Backbone:
């Protein structure tokens, strides 16, 4: 029997941008030698917030500034989620990440496997999101281990 070659997986890392969780996961995946390409939204807060007005022109009201930016950012987000094999959504403690919740819902609606990542203090607030996820982790290391198991089929 011939064994299949390792498939390259694409994992989209959505959510909180104020800590190094993406770097921890990326380093862990590389250290484990897993065949994974990682994608993410623009994680520079100012760039993400200002892309709409920088590209399409200034707005008098903050609502329309944010609306322009959200729509342009959605081009990247939706494209990467659509191409992903797995979507990891991180919820941090400091800010309410409504965009992360939206990404989790979008990915779930598209039939993408979703893994949530957050501290146990957010369990109640995220109960509906976690219920739609296939796994809920509380550390980047657990994400790497989940992906390693899914990809390699070994503990």
Residues:
């Amino acid at each position: 029997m011939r064994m299949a070659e390792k498939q390259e997986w694409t994992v989209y890392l959505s959510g909180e941008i104020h800590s190094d969780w993406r770097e921890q996961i990326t380093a862990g995946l590389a250290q484990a030698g897993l065949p994974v390409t990682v994608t993410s939204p623009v994680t520079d807060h100012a760039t993400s917030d200002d892309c709409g007005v920088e590209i399409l022109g200034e707005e008098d009201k903050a609502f329309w500034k944010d609306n322009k930016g959200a729509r342009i950012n959605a081009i990247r987000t939706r494209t990467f989620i659509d191409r992903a094999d797995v979507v990891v959504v991180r919820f941090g403690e400091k800010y309410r990440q409504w965009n992360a919740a939206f990404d989790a819902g979008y990915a779930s609606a598209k039939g993408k496997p979703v893994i949530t990542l957050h501290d146990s203090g957010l369990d109640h607030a995220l109960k509906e999101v976690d219920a739609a996820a296939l796994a809920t982790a509380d550390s980047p290391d657990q994400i790497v281990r989940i992906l390693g198991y899914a990809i390699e089929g070994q503990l």
